[in-house]
Amino acid sequence: xxxxxxxRLSDEQLVDWLRLIRSENIGPRTFRQLINRFGGASAAxxxxxxxxxxxxxxRIIRIATREEALREIELARALGVRFVTTGxxxxxxxxxxxxxxxxxxxxxxxxxxxxxDGVAIVGSRNASAAGLAFAERLARSLALENYxxxxxxxxxxxxxxxxxxLETGTIAVLAGGHARPYPSEHERLVEEIAERxxxxxxxxxxxxxxxxxxxxxxxxxxxxxxxxxxxxxxRRSGSLITARFANEQGREVFAVPGSPLDxxxxxxxxxxxxxxxxxxxxEDVISVLAENAGAPPRKNLFDDDALEGQESLIDELDLFGAxxxxxxxxxxxxxxFSAPPPAASAPDHQANAQDDxxxxxxxxxxxxxxxxxxxxxxxxxxxxxxxTAREVQGVLVELDIEGRLQRHGANGVSLVYNYKL
Length: 421
Fold this sequence. Notes:
Layout: H1 11-21, H2 28-38, H3 41-55, H4 66-79, E1 81-85, H5 93-96, E2 104-109, E3 118-122, H6 129-144, E4 148-151, H7 157-164, E5 170-173, H8 187-196, E6 198-201, H9 213-223, E7 225-230, H10 238-248, E8 252-255, H11 266-274, E9 277-278, H12 282-291, H13 327-334, H14 363-370, E10 376-377, H15 378-385, H16 389-401, E11 405-408, E12 412-415
Parallel strand pairs: 3-4, 3-7, 4-5, 5-6, 7-8, 8-9
Antiparallel strand pairs: 1-2, 2-6, 10-12, 11-12
């Protein structure tokens, strides 16, 4: 076993930290309480059985074994993953500031660049072509200003933001472990991100993400970022959870306005009404961040009394009378997040598990799903759809004949607003 360098754990300490954070219902706040009370993870592990039995009226909790911790370390090394703790110089400074900062995160990819602030770009999984094109432009423009783009690896807006900044480095936050990236179709994207960017997870290496893990991940996305930008989001979108976490963390919240006729814009338009900063061009973000550099945290933007307080985001044991064991469920309800039923095999924060099907929709379905009331240039539609110009033009002709297509100047097209999808 090696000795720890300043700010870093020794191999033996890492085993103890992993055992403690992977034990049943030990979350960030309980972890910190245990470390502060007993002076270290090893002593906390020794005290935990009797402390839990006393505090929980005889209930026995499961404590992660040394063998499990060693296996996770071995798997991490095989994947090129390294563990970083809050005291480590490589721990992201902005993330360290949030109330529920994970004590230990697993990183894969390039070294962390503390000189670059993060900006989160999130939005709809079923985004319109206009939304995807704007997210791409926004990500590239912010990258040119030396911001690193943070997102959640989901389909739609997240994936476009990542791909637009592969060359400059992007940060992807996983809901599961590094061995189980979700969705599985983005495994190649994960490899590309790892070449120049960073992939972050607080979950065990082999953890298969569940529906409730996505809002937990979202507070890390916002925590890594000086600002969160929501490009498209329906009213029950997981992206709105990220925006609320950003607000509670004192970070900037931006929303890209959308057509009132498009359900994918209802959530972002609501955010603007509640006080989020309107983002109609990259300069809107760049100027606000420049003006507010070094400023104290912003006040609460949202008129939502249910979100006040500092309750935990995660199931945690109430060992010291200060942690609410049901806080995660309450938090999920407050944020209007509905997790899929336990039987679901592949959760998503914005859709059910069935959307990971290998069946590819035909060109007609793809084009209709990408179009909305807002005009999009046909060239952008072709690029975003990943189809040939012939395929796209063929579908547009069909929609035109059916009376479902509206043509605009500058070679733009949109769906007729009163056509029921």
